[in-house]
Specification:
six-stranded mixed beta sheet, 6 helices
Length: 191
């Protein structure tokens, strides 16, 4: 066997070991970027994907907050609160679909970036609001809540980065929460 073939064959186990190690590290990183309760991306994982999506002029940034979540935890227990968070996460991720991204920013606050293919974000978010407010299957029917949404079309504020758009969506969400309006679009009034 010639020298080159011998060197390549001897390096093969080392290269295979490094490939397996890189694969394992990527898995660890992916796990670290996922919320253990809901399976959604954490703030870091969400930020990375959302920033890439904001390059699309059809991007819409959404912030969702479960109304009266502390009351549910205090009254019905943390298991009921966890079930509500899981259901909210599943419904949000399903609604956002594969072209968008959803994440849990912490506590009962969720964020999403979706691509509005048809210019009907207001209608899409009205449907999402109704979906998020449905009771959780298999849970005590008394455990009821609503979700407040704030949203902003990225094209309305072209100079804002993700942080600025999330701030605007947050302001709209709190305005919707205070008015008990369900959802509000940043800077442009009610849905």
């Amino acid at each position: 066997m010639n020298t080159l073939a011998t060197v390549l064959l001897s390096a093969l186990p080392l290269a295979a070991g490094w490939a397996i190690h890189v694969w394992w590290l990527r898995g660890c990183l992916n796990t670290a970027r996922r919320d253990p309760l809901t399976g959604l991306r954490t703030r870091d994982g969400f930020t990375r994907r959302a920033t890439a999506l904001l390059k699309d002029p059809r991007a819409v940034v959404v912030l969702a907050d479960v109304d009266k979540f502390k009351h549910i935890n205090d009254t019905y227990g943390h298991a009921a609160g966890d079930a509500l968070l899981k259901a909210t996460a599943d419904r949000l991720a399903h609604h956002v679909g594969r072209t968008g991204v959803a994440g849990r920013l912490g506590g009962d606050e969720f964020a999403a970036v979706l691509i509005d293919d048809h210019g009907t974000a207001g209608d899409l978010l009205a449907v999402l609001h109704g979906v998020l407010a449905r009771p959780v299957d298999g849970q005590d029917p008394a455990v009821r809540t609503t979700v407040s949404l704030g949203w902003v079309r990225a094209a309305d504020f072209p100079d804002d980065d993700l942080s600025g758009l999330l701030r605007r969506a947050d302001e709209a969400m709190y305005a919707a929460k205070q008015a008990r309006a369900g959802a509000r679009r940043a800077g442009l009034g009610w849905l």
